[in-house]
């Protein structure tokens, strides 16, 4: 967490401990602090403060977006063909906060779900979305950027198509929020989830942006907090810290993007020199070797628009590389012994690694899936650390 963030939070853990819903004077300090944080969070995505609703994190915001969309339609609402309106479209590479919630909604008989495929770079094709949209589709939920391979989706195009079909568009922006420019109005998204801890804020705080014209209802019942939309006493220090983290993120965003992007490119280049069979998973940044031509590139979609007209379609801080013939699990252990923490697949109940559903969705075999490593770069990552990582990889791989 950032020092500035902790400093902003501390008074709300100590002297300003009032409950914002109370009527005594102490309450107004907490209530005012939440109002300021709401402005700060809104400002980072071009929203209005009253469109921001604080949650316990990205997972709650994602669950609320999906369940809230279903709450908007009456169970009795039917299409001309007599189908009840409860079809939701998402993608195969979403975070489990979306995928598991969708599965549960299907099990509960509340939703019918279509998961769109992605191309080998992890991008959803607008043509596929067009084909999947139906008269009974109520919501399309596509992540802004993927947490494993850093691919950024063509949100504006996908949101346009969704609106033409009369449905709402939600994006899980947990990985993109504060990392790349995002403007909800320009992108045309109706709902957006974000999380504080991805931008050096406190863990356990997040938000859902809800476009002001949508009468979204609360997913949990209780008090009248967050204008009756999210019951429960607010996590005041968390929300204040989230607001402070948004201010820092906005200020530092262009520099971080440039710096992290350059370091990411350096790590990819070094890894490919060290191990010529290495293959980058996810979109290839411009200027780093030969870009493979994705189907979206051929359709011209990528150059027309992107979140904030990005120089490339990969998150600045994400590197995910397959080292064919190697075991990612073993590489992780050897890297950790050199003080380098990376990740791979997802931890399963037994403590070992399950293959990643994202890497499977972009077409990797199980062997290549188990040979892939992810490196996450942050604002404190230095060139020396990248060189140290590349040197360690060289020793370990050889
Ligand atoms: N969505 C994505 C894409 C994520 O990467 C994460 C967390 O890493 C989440 C949702 C869940 O967010 P939180 O941990 O704040 O609940």
Automatic annotation (TrEMBL):
Keywords: Aminotransferase, Iron, Iron-sulfur, Metal-binding, Pyridoxal phosphate, Transferase
Entries under InterPro entries matching the protein: Aminotrans_V_dom, Aminotrans_V_PyrdxlP_BS, Cysteine_dSase, PyrdxlP-dep_Trfase, PyrdxlP-dep_Trfase_major, PyrdxlP-dep_Trfase_small
Cofactor(s) the record lists: pyridoxal 5'-phosphate
Stretches assigned to the Aminotransferase class V domain: 4-273
GO function term, MF aspect, one: transaminase activity
Stretches assigned to coiled coil: none
Catalytic activity: (sulfur carrier)-H + L-cysteine = (sulfur carrier)-SH + L-alanine
UniProt EC number: 2.8.1.7
Tree of life domain: Bacteria
UniProt record similarity statement: Belongs to the class-V pyridoxal-phosphate-dependent aminotransferase family. NifS/IscS subfamily.
The protein's name in its UniProt record: cysteine desulfurase
Gene source species: Shuttleworthella satelles DSM 14600
Lineage summary: Bacteria, Bacillati, Bacillota, Clostridia, Lachnospirales
């Amino acid at each position: 967490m950032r020092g500035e963030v902790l400093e902003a939070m501390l008074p709300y853990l100590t002297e300003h401990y009032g409950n914002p819903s109370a009527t005594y004077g102490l309450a107004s300090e907490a209530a005012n602090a939440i109002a300021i944080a709401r402005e700060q969070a809104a400002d980072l995505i071009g929203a209005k403060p009253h469109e921001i609703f604080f949650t316990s994190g990205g997972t709650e915001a994602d669950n609320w977006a999906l369940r809230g969309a279903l709450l908007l339609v009456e169970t009795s609402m039917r299409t001309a063909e007599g189908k009840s309106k409860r079809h939701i479209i998402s993608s195969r590479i979403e975070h489990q906060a979306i995928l598991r919630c969708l599965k549960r909604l299907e099990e509960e008989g509340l939703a019918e779900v279509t998961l769109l495929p992605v191309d080998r770079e992890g991008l959803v094709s607008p043509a596929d979305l067009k084909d999947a949209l139906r008269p009974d589709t109520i919501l399309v939920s596509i992540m802004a950027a993927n947490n494993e391979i850093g691919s950024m989706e063509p949100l504006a195009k996908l949101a346009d198509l969704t609106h033409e079909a009369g449905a709402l568009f939600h994006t899980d922006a947990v990985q993109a929020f504060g990392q790349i420019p995002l403007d909800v109005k320009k992108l045309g998204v109706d709902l957006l989830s974000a999380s504080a801890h991805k931008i050096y804020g406190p863990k356990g705080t997040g938000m859902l942006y809800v476009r002001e014209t949508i009468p979204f209802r609360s997913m949990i019942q209780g008090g009248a907090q967050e204008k009756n939309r999210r019951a429960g006493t607010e996590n005041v220090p968390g929300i204040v810290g989230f607001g402070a983290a948004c201010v820092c993120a906005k200020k530092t965003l262009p520099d971080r993007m440039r710096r992290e992007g350059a370091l990411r490119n350096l790590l990819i280049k070094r890894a490919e020199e060290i191990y010529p069979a290495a293959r980058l998973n996810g979109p290839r940044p411009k200027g780093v070797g030969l870009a493979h031509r994705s189907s979206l590139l051929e359709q011209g979609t990528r150059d027309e628009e992107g979140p904030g007209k990005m120089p490339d379609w990969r998150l600045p801080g994400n590197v995910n590389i397959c080292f064919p013939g190697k075991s990612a699990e073993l590489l992780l252990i050897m890297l950790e012994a050199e003080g380098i923490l990376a990740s791979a697949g997802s931890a399963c109940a037994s403590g070992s690694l399950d293959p990643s559903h994202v890497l499977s969705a972009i077409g990797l075999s199980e062997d290549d899936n188990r040979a892939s490593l992810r490196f996450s770069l942050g604002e404190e990552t230095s060139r020396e650390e990248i060189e140290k990582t590349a040197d360690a990889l060289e020793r370990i791989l050889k």
